[in-house]
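Re: that chain you flagged

S.,

Sorry for the slow reply, it's been a week of failed gels. I finally had a moment to sit down with the sequence you sent. For the record, here it is as I used it:
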Amino acid sequence: MKILLIEDNQKIAQNIKDYLEIEPEREVDTAFDGEKGLTMAESREYDLVLLDLMLPKLDWKTFIQTIRKSKSFPIIVITAKSQIEDKLELFEMGADDYLTKPFDLQELLARCRAILRRWVVGNLFNYEDIIINLDKKEVKKNWAILQITLKEFQILELLIQNQGVAVSRTDILTEIRGEDSIWETDDKLDVYISTLRRKLGKNLIITVKWFGYRLWGTSE
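Prediction finished late last night. Pasting the structure tokens below so you have them in one place:
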């Protein structure tokens, strides 16, 4: 597990690095400001980024907006409770999870492992007991192949391609309409989402109120 930690408090950063690197399977690079963190994130390969909310030189929003144009690794935001004014904004900007200070290092490690368990590896997307093969257009739950329609798979694929970011209802409808635009309506989209939740579980596709949908997390 190759991790990039972007944290301006060097003592906190060192504590996190020391703990995560107890096991030789994990390697942590550190950056103490947003600009350096962005340079490292763009030029190297990482499995995961831990991003402090308050950074010198480059703010977290600019970091996420910029890095999402070229990289697709998961991002966990680390923040003080007083800084969480709008959790939904974190997810809409492209964060995958957040952790408030002070936190237990064991919890941080558990969050890292959980995020990576549900991240795309190549063309395989894994979430808990669900495996989605983007090449074969095949969906398995508990290793059993599910019957998924083409429209349902198109919705899943679009959400996977935009993981960590909410996708609007308009964009989803545009993706699945094709030549059948006259038949694809908002009501029909609700049916597709409801059917997918019945097949895959209610926690995979999350409603973003007044906007659209995203993969996993806490419904707002």
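What I noticed first: The chain has eight helices and 13 strands.

Talk soon,
D.
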